[in-house]
Input
Amino acid sequence: MSAPLLSVHDLKVHFDVSRKRLFGGGVPAIVKAVDGVTFDLKPGETLGLVGESGCGKSTLGRAVLRLLPLKGGRAVWLGQDLAKLDTHAMRSLRREMQIIFQDPLASLNPRMTVGQIIAEPLTTFQPNLSADEVKARVKAMMAKVGLLPNQVNRYPHEFSGGQCQRIGIARAIINNPRLIVCDEPVSALDVSIQAQIVNLLMDLQKEMGMSLIFISHNLAIVRHISHRVMVLYLGKVMEIADRDSLYKNPLHPYTQALNSAVPVPDPDIEQSKARIVLKGDLPSPLNPPSGCPFRTRCPRATEICAQEMPELVAAGPDHMVACHHAGPIS
Ligand SMILES: Nc1ncnc2c1ncn2[C@@H]1O[C@H](COP(=O)(O)OP(=O)(O)OP(=O)(O)O)[C@@H](O)[C@H]1O
Output
């Protein structure tokens, strides 16, 4: 088995949102956006991150790229603790780790041409390349992501949302990164375009062998693209498993509820499927429930759930779950 590209252990990212810090005075208020997350990511693997809005997906994606300061825990990249790298070492690592954002147009500089946007990371990390070489690589990259190379001098606003996301992908992959964090890369796109972008990412991954952390609300898309999937709830891991185990044999009541909402293309199955409706709303991240954060909405909650956060324990060969009452739907 290959060594992990990224090993994340007990990672914590907390935001101080107290009025005291922001305006002076007031009571302390801390959002534990990511609170003790542990996982490994192998080379060439896609890990899907799912969970309701505000559960910490984006914060986790940014924290592992060291774009946010850690409150605790470690993110280890090929044996190196990222928090211990100095600015210079971290800067050269940036070439290996990239991010693609949700809003493709907003993530592109409107004053730069597509050619300049895609060339920027190349010339930053390989300043000795000749202008002709840069031009040739940019055009080859445009063709690779399904853009017309003769549109190299156009500006982002002249492209559709899907094309802008292709530009973002070209910019992310031009330096052959080992990891791309894809933060909701298709949720702002038309449904018809979403599959094209997901398939492009899958083809590029097959060809270039990079790892992906794929963040999405859409469990059907995550199922299509991921090798493994991690379910987050209020900053904590509820369940992490290989794709088939997670979708066919979910053991956490939260995963089971999320799965039950995924539409099935067969109308007969879809009609007869039992949908699990969670009671209540997501609790405030400023005042999460004691013990297991999911317990206030959990159909299986008992006294112990209010007292202790369950450990994330092995439930199968590539399957970990954090629940006092983990088990298949009864
Ligand atoms: N810069 C920040 N300052 C204060 N709180 C923040 C900050 N960024 C995120 N948060 C809070 O941290 C929690 C996790 O946010 P995050 O954006 O990571 O969730 P998410 O799962 O990606 O949500 P979404 O799917 O809506 O993007 C939320 O409660 C959010 O309000």
